[in-house]
Specification:
Elements: H1 2-11, H2 25-32, H3 37-42, E1 59-62, H4 71-84, E2 92-95, E3 106-107, E4 113-114, H5 116-124, E5 131-135, E6 148-151, E7 157-161, E8 173-176, E9 182-187, E10 196-197, E11 206-211, H6 219-228, E12 234-239, H7 244-249, E13 261-264, H8 274-281, E14 288-292, E15 321-327, H9 331-342, E16 350-355
Organism: Triticum aestivum
Protein name: F-box domain-containing protein
Pfam families: F-box (PF00646)
Length: 356
């Protein structure tokens, strides 16, 4: 009896049945996709069956950059990984880059130097790439033509947050992604020029734009940006204080015919409620308006780009609700209510929520 118990215990202990290895290849490859790619490759020494599993992992993750001696070693690892893996489509890519450029450049698997634009093209030209996220990246203009093009015929979700578009060169990045469905763009201080979207995006559904006050002088960039967002049905448009460029850009924009949900902050009421008037008038299918007032109101001077709202009009017939989030006793709320009332928005459709 004791021998049977001992034998059974051995079968389920450290030297017993490989329960993980009994899983189908698809499950193991899915599990490997959550590991940093460097660790996934190392599983090839576990057993004969694991020798090639990492080649079919549907994700590429290089997040442990501190384990590499330099950016060139990171590039070398990624290039060899791409060459050695099989034809399984990559569903997800996550790459953490160095904060400082070491001047060594980028190299392909043959050791030939790549310009930065060519390096970007290696990723955005992937025919199955659907989601591209760039966070805190320094996008350098190293080419002789001083241009940077990011184009794709497959990307559906694009997120560019807190990136630096080489503000020393003052060149504008050109983005052409007609298949885009979701866009998240956040530009902070000294980010460089606002990138231009070359093509219209007819499939665009949700858009989140956050611009710092440093973008105020880029009138052309803001105009190009707003013009490409006219197909969006859900628009979150936030800007820093005194958003002169946005107010000027509204003079050149067309109708937001598909817009149903709109979120704005303080910039829409400075100095004459012009931006608010504009969206109420030129969004014929607007259903919900969110206004977030988190900072004390400061009157600013009018500019030549201010919108002329002298001609009366009525807001969208599809209007259902207006939600205003504000500080207690915010003097702007009463003025906003007057604007909404003058545009035919009934008081029962307006909700006011206090924030701390």
């Amino acid at each position: 009896m004791r021998r049977r118990i001992a034998g059974k215990a051995a079968a389920t202990g450290d030297g017993g049945v490989d329960r993980l290895g009994a899983l189908p290849d698809e499950i193991l490859q899915h599990a490997l996709s959550f590991l940093p790619s460097r660790d996934a490759v190392r599983t090839c020494v576990l057993a004969r069956r694991w020798r090639h599993l990492w080649k079919s992992a549907p994700a590429l993750r290089v997040t442990d950059v501190d384990a590499f001696r330099s950016a060139r070693h990171v590039n070398g690892f990624v290039n060899h990984l791409i060459v050695l893996r099989d034809r399984t489509p990559l569903r997800e890519r996550e790459i953490a880059v160095y904060k400082e450029y070491d001047g060594g450049g980028y190299y392909d698997s043959n050791g030939d130097r790549l310009e930065h634009s060519q390096y970007i093209d290696l990723w955005v030209s992937c025919p199955n790439l659907e989601t591209l996220k760039m966070n805190r990246c320094s996008i350098l203009f190293l080419g002789g033509d001083r241009s940077m093009n990011i184009s794709s015929q497959s990307v559906r979700c694009l997120s560019i947050t807190r990136c630096d578009f080489d503000h020393f060169v003052r060149a504008r990045a050109l983005i052409s992604i007609p298949t885009l469905v979701h866009l998240d763009l956040e530009l902070t201080e000294d980010c460089g020029l606002v990138p231009a979207f070359e093509s219209m995006m007819p499939s665009l559904l949700t858009t989140s734009i956050k611009l710092d006050r440093s973008c105020n002088k880029d009138d052309m960039g803001c105009s190009l940006l707003l013009g490409c967002l006219s197909h969006s049905s859900n628009l979150d448009l936030m800007a820093g204080p005194q958003a002169f460029a946005f107010r000027t850009a509204l003079k050149r924009c067309t109708t937001f015919s598909k817009l149903k949900i709109l979120s704005l902050n303080e910039w829409c009421v400075e100095p004459d409620f012009g931006p608010l008037h504009y969206f109420l008038r030129w969004s014929p299918n607007l259903e919900k308006l969110n206004i977030h007032l988190s900072k004390p109101y400061r009157h600013v001077e009018e500019t030549e780009g201010c919108y002329d709202s002298a001609e009366p009009f009525l807001a969208s017939k599809q209007f259902r609700v207006v939600e205003i989030k504000c500080r207690a006793k915010d003097k702007l709320v009463h003025k906003i209510l007057k604007v909404l009332s003058s545009c035919g928005v009934p008081a029962e459709q307006i909700n006011i929520k206090k924030i701390n």
